[in-house]
Amino acid sequence: MPERPPGLTPQVRLGVLGGLSTAQQVPACGGSPHGSCHPQYASAVATSLVGAELATAFGRDGVVCVRQVLDPGELASAARAIEIVLANPSPISQVASSADDPGSFFEDFCRWREIPEIEQLARGSRVPQIAAALMSTPQLRFYHDHVLVKEGGTQQRTPWHQDQPYYNVDGRGVSAWIPVDPVPEAGCLELLAASHLGPWLMPRTFLAGEARWFPEGSLAELPDIEAGREAFDIRRFELAPGDAIFFDFLTVHGAPGFPFPGRRRVLSLRYLSAGARHAPRPWRTSPPFDGLGDELPGGAVMDHPLFPAVWPA
Fold first, then answer.
1. pLDDT tens-digit readout, 135-169
2. Has residue 183 got a pLDDT over 60?
3. How far apart are CA 257 and CA 272, in angstroms?
4. CA–CA separation, 129 vs 185, rounded Å?
5. Residue 11's pLDDT is what?
6. Which residues, listed in sequence order, are joined to residue 183 by a DSSP beta bridge?
7. What confidence tens digit (pLDDT) does each residue in 249-306 have?
8. Count of CA atoms in the C-beta half-sphere (13 A) of 247
9. Residue 182's Cα: distance from chain center in Å?
10. Among residues 267, 289, 286, which one has the least CA distance to residue 278?
11. What is the pLDDT of residue 142?
12. How many whole angstroms from its chain centre is CA 185?
């Protein structure tokens, strides 16, 4: 597990970062040696077109908001994909809210190989171009998709957590959290700025708070953020459909319930940098990739059909 400098330094304010400008459309590579994309060239192209301000903010804070990442057609595809998932949940889907919650919080994972709309968005939208630029990586792999739906009136809060301790990878990755419905600031994902620079923190189950992954005591515990929110630099946004929050796999984040009349449907697309490596765990990861250890040794590049290279295209 990579070592990280101390993190989660308290701040003196509750920060709300406004949306930064969208990235430019990254053109197909041309004029590179031998008519192909040299990895460093591709990374430089993506970074220059996203903009230094956005990439610098991401490196510093571990989170940025990018407006209108999906065009209207892509937004319709994302909404259609989510409805397909809701109508046909997979065996690893779950309801992460209690039975007495007046709403419901539904999750499902890894549906891109059976739902073409998700694969097309993961590969062909501007999302992978932006993700590659934010990590300054010469190559980007798609890791998995995650559908998250909070029905109107849901009380269940998504607890504060990092994503990477639940995963089977070491090295950098980025998530793009893309709503297909309007999301008021009070119902949005919340993220602790600069927490990606800190240590790995204990992953726990959302409802029971159990340590099913790393053994008790092996990782530091999250601070009680809700007991003193004013001490942390918390970023949240009012989002329009097709906007996206990009955040590092180690950025601490959570979300309130959704005490609003509409739904909050989100498609999250997750990507791996060129430096990401397979890290088999002695427990079942979330999401699980059963049997992957038989095909991909520990420490290997994530070069496997489950994780296709999507940048350069």
1. 999 999 999 999 999 999 999 999 999 999 999 99
2. yes
3. 29
4. 26
5. 35
6. 239
7. 999 999 999 999 999 999 999 999 999 999 999 888 999 999 999 999 999 999 999 9
8. 27
9. 19
10. 289
11. 98
12. 18
Alpha-carbon span 171 to 216, nearest angstrom: 23
Residue 12 CB coordination number (10 Å)? 9
Q: What does the pLDDT read at residue 169?
A: 97
User: Is the CB of residue 288 less than 8 Å from the CB of residue 167?
Assistant: no
Tens digits of per-residue pLDDT, 84-117?
999 999 999 999 898 999 999 999 999 999 999 9
Q: Which amino acid is at 34?
A: H
Q: Domains in the chain, start-ordered, CATH in brackets?
A: 36-207+233-283+299-311 (2.60.120.620)
| DSSP annotation string for the chain | -----------SS---PPPBPPPPPPPPP-SSGGGS--HHHHHHHHHHHH-HHHHHHHHHHSEEEES--S-HHHHHHHHHHHHHHHHS--TT-EE-S-TT-SS-EEEEE--TTT-HHHHHHHHHSSHHHHHHHHHT-S-EEEEEEEEEEE-TTB-PPEEEE-SGGGSSEES-EEEEEEESS-B-GGGS-EEETTGGGS--B----TTT----SSPTTSSBPPP-GGGGGGGS-EE---B-TT-EEEEETT--EEE--B-SSS-EEEEEEEEEETT-EE---SS--SS--TTGGGTS-TT-B--STTS-EEE--
Farthest-apart Cα atoms in the chain, separation: 62
Other Cβ atoms closer than 10 A to 48? 13
Nearest CA-CA partner of 48 in 125, 133, 131, 128: 133
